[in-house]
Every structure is written in C-alpha cells, then in structure tokens.
C-alpha cells in the first residue's frame, strides 16, 4: 500500500518559482494561464500496516515532510 | 567561554566559524559531529553554514532531526547561547528554536556578496559591541534566505525586540533596494524570545580578520566571549 502526499504552499505565501513559470508559459504563447503555484509530491510505500493510519502519516507530514509555517499537506492512501 | 561548533555532512562554514571564534576566544572551539548524542559542557554553540544533507526536502529540514540537534534544543532551552548562521539559521527554524522560515530568494538567484546590515537590537549578548542603528558590512552567500513569518509572528518579533539585523544600504537606511532576498521587513537576523538564540543569514565569521577585508563580524564573537567569561 502507498500514501500519496501533496505538499503545497499556503495561500498568501509568495511563490517566486510559480511566478517565474507563469511568466515563462506566457512567453511561450500560452495565453490562458492564471496563477501558477509549485508544490511537492511525495510517495510513501508503507510496509507496516500500522503505519498506514492517516493520523500516522499526518504526523510524518507535520514533523518532517511539510513545514507547516508555509505549507499545507494533503494525504491520500492507496491500497 | 566554552564553545562548540556543530558539523553536519555538507557543512562548509564550520572551519570559518572555528577560526572566527578562535580569533576572539584565543583557543579553538570543540567540533561536534552531528551523529553525537551528547554535547560537551559548553555555554556557546554555533550551528554553521553550508548545505547540510544537500538541502534535501527543505534547507535544514534533515539536519534539524540529527541526533545532536536534540541536545542543542535542550541546551538552548536551558539558556545556552546558540548562533545559527546561514544554513545554521535555516536549521534553527526547522528545529523550532526560532520562528518563521527561510524561503527561496525572491529573485530566485543565489546571492554571494557583501551587504550592509543595520544593527536593530544592540542590547543582546551577541550584539552589545555594536551600537543601535550602526550599519555593518558582512558577506552573504545563500539561495534560500528570504525570511517569512505570518503577520502575527512578525508583529511579535518586532514588538519584543527580536529583530537583530535588517538589510540596509551603506548609510544604514532600510530600503526595498537593500532588501536583497525579499525578506519580510528586511529581516536578516532574529532572536528567540529569551534572546539566547540568534539566527542570521549573513556570515559574521567570514569577516573577523583584516586579511579577509574587514572585521565587522568580530565584535559579535568578542561580545560573546566577554559575556561568557
């Protein structure tokens, strides 16, 4: 089983990388792109059934995978 | 003063820090590898700059959970003075000893040059050999030095005198142009509430010797030696 974790910047936190990509897409001629925000995708393979609890994975996110000062995280468990 | 410098895999300012401390102290600090689980009996700990753990995940995120950091956090909470420079500052925020976070520089570029800093709080054991409002010249070398904290945290930092240094011009004016990396309120260095932990992006340890072009970093180490002897 796997957990899929998306780490994204909170609203209101500036994302200069996203801005640069947004600008580059415009330069390439893609006219209809609004704000671009860049995040991380982390895939965890869970070998111990006990680890798959959502609470456990959320603790992993809070302690290491995300910095909750600026980032939100979203956990999806895939059987 | 009994001093230690923490060394992580990927630290690259640990020797500069050692020499900077030695200039003021007259002897070498202890160098402590990050895998150690105990610190020697010290009253000053320096967390140096570099690219610990290759900046994996986020700058300082892995190092903040190194075995030795548990001890550093414990000592800091007991009042031991802790200085984090550059990557060391990032590590201290990730370890929860300082508020906020250091994000990618606003213009996305690595910045390596001398900058000016306005001494905002000159009443701490780190800064009392400077005068309040003084502009000092110190080098920076970082990609992720853009200090961010939410409005509430920022107001607390400002209200408690926890802002130690701000980016300024040569005359000491805190301007948008002088804000090299997009930090909120031009913040270059902050203290914890008890003022025994200082984190800063610029490198005072790199400017402690006239042969290196200046000595504006030396008063910080002189002040610590005086306070702790």
Automatic annotation (TrEMBL), chain A:
UniProt keyword list: ATP-binding, Cytoplasm, Ligase, Nucleotide-binding, Purine biosynthesis
Q: Which GO terms describe its biological process?
A: 'de novo' IMP biosynthetic process
Gene Ontology MF: a single term:
ATP binding
Q: Which family does it belong to?
A: Belongs to the PurS family.
Please give the organism: Terasakiella brassicae
Where in or outside the cell is it found? Cytoplasm
| Protein name stated in the entry | Phosphoribosylformylglycinamidine synthase subunit PurS
**Involved pathway(s):** Purine metabolism; IMP biosynthesis via de novo pathway; 5-amino-1-(5-phospho-D-ribosyl)imidazole from N(2)-formyl-N(1)-(5-phospho-D-ribosyl)glycinamide: step 1/2
List the top taxonomic levels of the source. Answer: Bacteria, Pseudomonadati, Pseudomonadota, Alphaproteobacteria, Rhodospirillales
Q: Which GO terms describe its cellular component?
A: cytoplasm
Q: What does this protein do?
A: Part of the phosphoribosylformylglycinamidine synthase complex involved in the purines biosynthetic pathway. Catalyzes the ATP-dependent conversion of formylglycinamide ribonucleotide (FGAR) and glutamine to yield formylglycinamidine ribonucleotide (FGAM) and glutamate. The FGAM synthase complex is composed of three subunits. PurQ produces an ammonia molecule by converting glutamine to glutamate. PurL transfers the ammonia molecule to FGAR to form FGAM in an ATP-dependent manner.
Which InterPro entries does the protein's record reference?
Answer: PurS, PurS-like_sf
Q: Which SUPFAM superfamilies match?
A: PurS-like (SSF82697)
Task: Tell me which EC number(s) this protein carries.
Answer: 6.3.5.3
Q: Oligomeric state and partners?
A: Part of the FGAM synthase complex composed of 1 PurL, 1 PurQ and 2 PurS subunits.
Enzymatic reactions:
N(2)-formyl-N(1)-(5-phospho-beta-D-ribosyl)glycinamide + L-glutamine + ATP + H2O = 2-formamido-N(1)-(5-O-phospho-beta-D-ribosyl)acetamidine + L-glutamate + ADP + phosphate + H(+)
Q: Which NCBIfam families match?
A: phosphoribosylformylglycinamidine synthase subunit PurS, PRK05974.1
Automatic annotation (TrEMBL), chain B:
Any one biological process term the GO annotation gives: 'de novo' IMP biosynthetic process
SUPFAM superfamilies of this UniProt entry? Class I glutamine amidotransferase-like
Say if the entry is tagged with keyword Membrane.
no
Instruction: Quote the pathway field.
Output: Purine metabolism; IMP biosynthesis via de novo pathway; 5-amino-1-(5-phospho-D-ribosyl)imidazole from N(2)-formyl-N(1)-(5-phospho-D-ribosyl)glycinamide: step 1/2
Which UniProt keyword terms apply here? ATP-binding, Cytoplasm, Glutamine amidotransferase, Hydrolase, Ligase, Nucleotide-binding, Purine biosynthesis
Q: What is its EC number?
A: 6.3.5.3, 3.5.1.2
Active site positions, chain numbering: 86, 203, 205
Q: Catalytic activity annotated for this protein?
A: N(2)-formyl-N(1)-(5-phospho-beta-D-ribosyl)glycinamide + L-glutamine + ATP + H2O = 2-formamido-N(1)-(5-O-phospho-beta-D-ribosyl)acetamidine + L-glutamate + ADP + phosphate + H(+); L-glutamine + H2O = L-glutamate + NH4(+)
Question: What is this protein's name?
Answer: Phosphoribosylformylglycinamidine synthase subunit PurQ
The organism encoding this protein is Terasakiella brassicae
Lineage top rank: taxon: Bacteria
Q: What does this protein do?
A: Part of the phosphoribosylformylglycinamidine synthase complex involved in the purines biosynthetic pathway. Catalyzes the ATP-dependent conversion of formylglycinamide ribonucleotide (FGAR) and glutamine to yield formylglycinamidine ribonucleotide (FGAM) and glutamate. The FGAM synthase complex is composed of three subunits. PurQ produces an ammonia molecule by converting glutamine to glutamate. PurL transfers the ammonia molecule to FGAR to form FGAM in an ATP-dependent manner.
One MF term in GO for this entry?
A: phosphoribosylformylglycinamidine synthase activity
Q: How does it assemble?
A: Part of the FGAM synthase complex composed of 1 PurL, 1 PurQ and 2 PurS subunits.
Q: Which Gene3D superfamilies match?
A: 3.40.50.880
């Amino acid at each position: 089983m796997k957990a899929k974790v998306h780490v994204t910047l909170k609203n209101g936190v500036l994302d200069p990388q996203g801005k640069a990509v947004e600008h580059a897409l415009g330069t390439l001629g893609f006219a209809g792109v609004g704000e671009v925000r860049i995040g991380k995708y982390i895939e965890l393979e869970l070998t111990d059934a006990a680890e798959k609890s959502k609470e456990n994975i959320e603790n992993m996110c809070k302690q290491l995978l995300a910095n909750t000062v600026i980032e939100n995280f979203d956990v999806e468990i895939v059987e | 003063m009994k001093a230690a410098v923490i060394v992580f895999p990927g630290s690259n300012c640990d020797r500069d820090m050692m020499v900077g401390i030695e200039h003021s102290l007259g002897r070498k600090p202890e160098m402590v590898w990050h895998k150690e689980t105990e610190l020697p009996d010290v009253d000053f700990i320096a967390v140096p700059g570099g690219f610990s753990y290759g900046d994996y995940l986020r700058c300082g995120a892995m190092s903040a959970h190194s075995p030795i950091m548990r001890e550093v956090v414990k000592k800091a909470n007991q009042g031991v003075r802790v200085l984090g420079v550059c990557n060391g500052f990032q590590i201290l925020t990730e370890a929860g000893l300082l508020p906020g976070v250091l994000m990618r520089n606003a213009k996305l570029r690595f910045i390596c040059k001398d900058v000016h800093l306005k001494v905002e709080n000159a009443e701490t054991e780190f800064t009392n050999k400077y005068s309040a409002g003084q502009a000092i010249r110190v080098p920076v070398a970082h990609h992720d030095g853009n200090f961010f904290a939410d409005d509430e945290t920022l107001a607390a930092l400002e209200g408690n005198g926890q802002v130690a240094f701000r980016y300024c011009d040569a005359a000491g004016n805190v301007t948008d142009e002088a804000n090299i990396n997009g930090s909120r309120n031009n913040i270059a260095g902050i203290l914890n509430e008890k003022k025994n932990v200082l984190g800063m992006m610029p490198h005072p340890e790199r400017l402690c010797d006239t042969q290196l072009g200046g000595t504006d970093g030396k008063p910080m180490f002189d002040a610590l030696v005086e306070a702790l002897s």
